[in-house]
């Protein structure tokens, strides 16, 4: 089995996600900027936990030195490139996100990732983090294609274009392909039960990717009845 088999197992779900109204509206310029700001703040918090998970994978016992180094590089890259983009947006908007809580789907996703990375075998942790790389590259390419098709017929905020350029760009694609290669090496040697678990984690995290954009489109909040209770 290969990493491509993981992708194929979630292909129908991903084909729905690539047409998510939130993403399409980013390209055609109709997305509510408040929804995008909400997304950026939540995604910045997600990236902190995602980077931490990559570093934890790199620290797993028995991981080859070269792989460990690369996983730590992936973790640093999530902060140096992806989160830096988000921080630049917040600076442009004069937003301070300190004290903002993770919203329900953010917490659901980060908690699941952390649990798999800290309690399950290394290969399963790699598979759980794969959708964040691969799905983002895929939708980025889809959005680039739609943007090219629309041409100058629509105008969009510069932040939307910067996001599309990041995730549809060659630099991010190289990072993703390197991570896929790491996962692929484990897929080729894993036994049937391990592959089954890897596939389940991959599919669930693809669902959580979709739900993350659902959350932003709705600007989901914790129930108001709970807002005054810590």
Task: Tell me about this structure.
The structure is a single chain. This protein is an all-alpha fold and 230 residues long. It has a single domain (3-218), classed as Heme oxygenase-like (Heme Oxygenase, Chain A, Up-down Bundle). Helix content is 77%, strand content 0%. It has helices spanning 3-9, 11-17, 21-28, 33-58, 65-93, 104-119, 122-150, 158-167, 170-187, 192-218. The N and C termini lie far apart (46 Å). The relative contact order is 0.19.
Structural class: mainly alpha
Q: How would you sum up the global shape?
A: globular
Give me the CATH architecture, please: Up-down Bundle
Regions with little confidence, pLDDT below 50 for 5+ residues: none
- Give a count of the beta strands, DSSP E runs of length 2 or more: 0
Q: What is the total number of structural domains?
A: 1
Helix content: over 70%
CATH topology: Heme Oxygenase, Chain A
Rg, Cα atoms, Å = 18 Å
What are the SSEs and their pairings?
Elements: H1 3-9, H2 11-17, H3 21-28, H4 33-58, H5 65-93, H6 104-119, H7 122-150, H8 158-167, H9 170-187, H10 192-218
Helix pairs in contact: 1-10, 3-7, 4-5, 4-6, 4-7, 4-10, 6-7, 6-10, 7-8, 7-9, 7-10
Overview in brief:
By secondary structure, the protein is an all-alpha fold. It has helices spanning 3-9, 11-17, 21-28, 33-58, 65-93, 104-119, 122-150, 158-167, 170-187, 192-218.
Which properties best describe this structure?
Heme Oxygenase, Chain A; Thiaminase-2/PQQC; Haem_Oase-like_multi-hlx; mainly alpha; Thiamine_Salvage_TenA; 0% strand; Thiaminase-2/PQQC domain-containing protein; 10 helices; 230 residues
């Amino acid at each position: 089995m290969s990493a491509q088999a993981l992708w194929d197992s979630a292909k129908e779900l991903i084909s729905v996600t690539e047409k998510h109204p939130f993403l399409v509206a980013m390209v055609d310029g109709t997305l509510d900027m408040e929804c995008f700001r909400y997304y950026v703040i939540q995604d910045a918090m997600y990236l902190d936990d995602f980077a931490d998970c990559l570093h934890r994978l790199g620290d797993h016992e028995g991981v080859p030195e070269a792989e460990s180094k690369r996983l730590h590089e992936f973790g640093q890259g999530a902060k140096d490139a992806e989160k830096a983009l988000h921080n630049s947006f917040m600076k442009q908007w004069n937003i301070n996100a300190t004290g903002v809580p993770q919203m329900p789907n953010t917490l659901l996703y980060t908690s699941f990732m952390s649990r798999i990375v800290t309690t399950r075998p290394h290969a399963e942790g790699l598979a759980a983090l794969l959708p964040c790389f691969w799905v983002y590259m895929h939708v980025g390419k889809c959005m680039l294609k739609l943007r090219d098709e629309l041409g100058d017929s629509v105008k969009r905020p510069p932040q939307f274009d910067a996001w599309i350029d990041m995730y549809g760009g060659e630099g991010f694609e190289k990072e993703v392909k390197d991570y896929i290669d790491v996962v692929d090496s484990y897929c080729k040697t894993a036994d049937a039960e391990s592959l089954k678990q890897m596939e389940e984690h991959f599919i669930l995290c693809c669902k959580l990717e979709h739900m993350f954009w659902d959350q932003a489109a709705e600007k989901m909040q914790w129930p108001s009845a709970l807002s005054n209770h810590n």
